[in-house]
Amino acid sequence: MGSFIRLFVLALSVTLLINSSAVAGHDYDPYNDKPELKNHGGPMLTGTVNLAIMWYGYCGKEIKNTIRNFIKSLDFAGGKPKHQPKVVSWWEVVESYQSLMPEAKPGAAANISVKVAKQSSEKTYKLGMVLTLQYHIPKLIKHVTKGDPNIIPVIVAARDVTIQGVCHGKCADHLLTEPPNRRPFIIVGNPEVECPGECGWPFHAAEFGLKGPVLKPPNGNMSADAMVVSFASALADMVTSPMQDGFYHSFYRDNLGPSAVCKGIFGRGAAPGNPGQVQSDPKTGGNFNAYGYNNKRFLLPAVWNPKTKSCWIG
Ligand SMILES: *[C@@H]1O[C@H](CO)[C@@H](O)[C@H](O)[C@H]1NC(C)=O
Ligand SMILES: *[C@@H]1O[C@H](CO)[C@@H](O)[C@H](O)[C@H]1NC(C)=O
């Protein structure tokens, strides 16, 4: 009888669990769930990844320099040895997915070098202040890549520009262009005006009344430092699944990449509304979890480490 009741309770709770997840659709829990980042047969980006960045609207030097310094930091192993962890160690976790590819050779994963190959600024808002994925983004991609199919477009929005789909559950995204020539691209929203509570967190109080510490941006600009977080996530997810059929964790209708499965985690003890324990710069008070190029500090989103089966937080 006892075991029958236990079975019944178990069945009931499983049913409730499935129902609540299916209804909400986005109930993956980065703090407790154990994702399975499997390769789904598709490629990874390897070798050199060339980016073409389109700064759309008036993006000041705070945004441009902070994002470019982050990219330069991905392979910057120099700097003071005591400055740990480094951005390069975060990137090594992303690179390590290469050793999980079916054709991988034993040994350390090769370096993946990310370069800014082209940049273009559109300060006159030629296509207006709302960019749609169907109409405006393809035009900008064509413009910034000059038709080069081997270069990855990254469209970055100024504070007064809205990109379709951003600020509604996503702060940046890795998407594919339309067939027949599908290829990856990244969009990066700007949280300053549109959604500071959603995409400016943890440098801005979180929306939905979640209470927790608000961090100080390590490079002094809430939007710029928050855009590094969202761009870094999109980059990690794109490199490991450029055609959206590489590494991801399937969760209902969502395919979550190495950074998406660790969303909201920046340090030990992270919980909803709380980014977790991070370092603070004694001079500026800026909060960070990784050192980069030219003594810069960054707050990077955790990434799933396939070796330790946990979110890498430095
Ligand atoms: C951040 O920098 C941008 C320009 O790059 C500027 O428009 C914005 O006002 C700055 N924001 C803050 C909070 O300082
Ligand atoms: C690969 O990257 C590491 C830093 O992670 C660097 O020390 C090393 O020199 C790089 N190797 C090559 C061949 O570029």
Automatic annotation (TrEMBL):
Chief site of localization: secreted
Coiled coil: none
Keyword Secreted: yes
Organism of origin: Hibiscus trionum (Flower of an hour)
Keyword tags: Apoplast, Secreted, Signal
Gene Ontology cellular component annotations, sorted alphabetically: apoplast
Protein name (record): EXORDIUM like 6
Keyword Chloroplast belongs to the record: no
InterPro entries noted in UniProt: EXORDIUM-like
Signal peptide: 1-25
Cellular compartment(s): Secreted, Extracellular space, Apoplast
Source organism superkingdom: Eukaryota
Assigned protein family: Belongs to the EXORDIUM family.
Pfam families cross-referenced by the UniProt entry: Phi_1
